[in-house]
Amino acid sequence: MQAVLRKTIALLVVVFCAAQTALAYNALEEDAPEQDNATVEVIVAAYEFPPYYSSRLERHVLGELLELLNQHQSDYEFSIHEVRPQQRYQAISGQGCCSVLFFESAQWGWQPLLEEGVITLGPVLTEGSDHYVHLQGRRDVEVERIGGVVGYHYGLVGYQDDKNLLEEEYNLYLADTKRTLINMLLGERLDMIMLGSEYLSALRKNEPDLYEQFLVSDEKDQEYRTRLMLQTKGDVSLSWMQQQLIYLSEEDLLEPLFASFGLEQALVFSPQ
């Protein structure tokens, strides 16, 4: 009888100790800080600006650059949100949908947001220029109708972007895409259009038959340098973005990407 009693007491002690151990373990779990290893999504604003971005292209520079960024780190997941050119200012403002904008020039209407500290300028990525483009054989035709893209800024009109003003006072036809301008030039519905040097380089590489129909003026409408822009209080810091770009450059991943679009001369970003 006493032996049975001793066994019962021993069993109760074991059960009690196990219960206390479980309670202590649960308490430690509750007190431990939560581990948040979730990848943060970063929304990148993009507008029709080939070859940097166009939803009408199978390939564009921005898409492939973001693929590289997503492949070589796990802190952030970059995705594209398309906006119209004139909406890009709101898109990366404090109330906007996006945190980052690639391949943008500070001279294209950003001064108010820069002065307010809403936008932070990142490193220079590329350099380019807008050129006057005529159709071969029509260089001497009197220029009455010039074509540009709505929401773009051109030196010819003092970098104004008011569509009605440009069409009414400057007789500047504004299309939604550069391809529309090209089609109108080929159909002789426009006498001259303005195209960026990067787009012309991409056409020369990938569509040489089309490019050969152009007469590109040596006269430039403007020269620009594109940069990385970030919402000052956005999801990702400028220093982190710069380090990632430096890594891609040092690993020899940036140059081949840009060269595949014919933009090896446009790329000026350097780790130094």
Summarize the structure.
This protein is an alpha/beta fold and 272 residues long. It contains 10 helices and 8 strands.
Q: What does the main sheet amount to? A: 8 strands, mixed
User: Helical region count?
Assistant: 10
* Percentage of residues in DSSP E strands: 15-25%
Calculate the terminal CA-CA distance, rounded to whole Å.
Answer: 87 Å
Assembly annotation: single chain
Q: In sequence order, what are the helices and strands, one letter per element?
A: HEHEHEHEEHEHEHHEHH
Helix/sheet category:
alpha/beta
Q: Please state the average pLDDT score.
A: 87
Extract low-pLDDT stretches.
1-35
User: Can you count the beta strands?
Assistant: 8
Q: How large is the radius of gyration?
A: 29 Å
The 3D shape can be described as globular
Largest sheet, spatial ordering of strands:
2-1-3-8-4-7-5-6
Portion of residues within helices: 25-40%
